[in-house]
Please model this.
Amino acid sequence: MSADCIFCKIAKGEIPSNKVFEDDEFIVFHDIKPIAPVHFLIVPKAHIESLLSTGVTHQDLLGKALLIAPKLALQLGLKGFRTMVNTGREGGQEVFHLHIHVFGGSAVLPRT
Ligand code: 5GP
Ligand code: ZN
Model:
């Protein structure tokens, strides 16, 4: 938990979110400013700043995080999707708590 981290607060239920899924290790919720018809975020509950802060000890967590994407995408009716992990300021990251974006719901998504 990082005191001022918005995703830690969402994970603890201190800030509401439009939740898709939750277990001991992850919370998944719809992005507040979606850029596709379906746009959700897979967020580990542990405060990890970004992929730059991960190492071999996070291998299981990262694998599990990625496996959540197809499971929930199918549940939400998607037949395909795009994933994105912005990493560091240079990588366009705005919230410094690791998360995987999942986009879908349109036949053609813009190339970024
Ligand atoms: P990134 O850090 O990868 O650039 O993106 C952070 C994402 O988190 C953005 O797409 C933004 O819309 C989303 N976001 C920021 N604050 C909140 C929030 O309080 N609730 C939800 N559901 N999404 C948020
Ligand atoms: Zn956090």
In short: The radius of gyration is 14 Å. DSSP finds two helices and five strands in the chain. The pocket of zinc ion (ligand 2) is lined by residues 2, 5, 7-8, 47, 97 (CB under 6 Å). The chain has a mean pLDDT of 95.
